[in-house]
Amino acid sequence: MSSKELLLNPLPPGIEPGKVVYRIAEDRKNPLLRRKELIVEIWHVGLPTPNRLEVRQKIAEMLGVNVDCVYVRHVYTEFGWGKSKVEVHVYEDPEFGKLIEPLYIRLRNLPKEEAQKLREEIRQKKAEREEKKRKKKKKK
Fold this sequence. Notes:
Strand order of the largest sheet: 1-2-4-3
Shape: elongated
Number of domains: 2
CATH class of the largest domain: Alpha Beta
């Protein structure tokens, strides 16, 4: 491709402005943790970066797995390109994924209302533990 053609159409084939395209750039298997570790390129020229829930749903559809098995770890957006690279873990079993993935990653992959509800429950439990500690100190 000549430099003139590159200036006129800098996008790879199949990529159009106003259209979101997902491509799996890298696919590794991690048998020890029973998961696939993916790097996915998302082209979204002229559109905002898709949110984690959209990415999670689309990748689950692409791979034919349950959404609960998919965890979006990081989203790296390249400024000015309309391109993002996403690190994703896809587990064989959703329960195993809940054991392995840290709480903050699991919360990021939930809808905002559910995540806020879980955070509030965690705060309440922490406050209850602190209250019990204070009562024990006062008795001594």
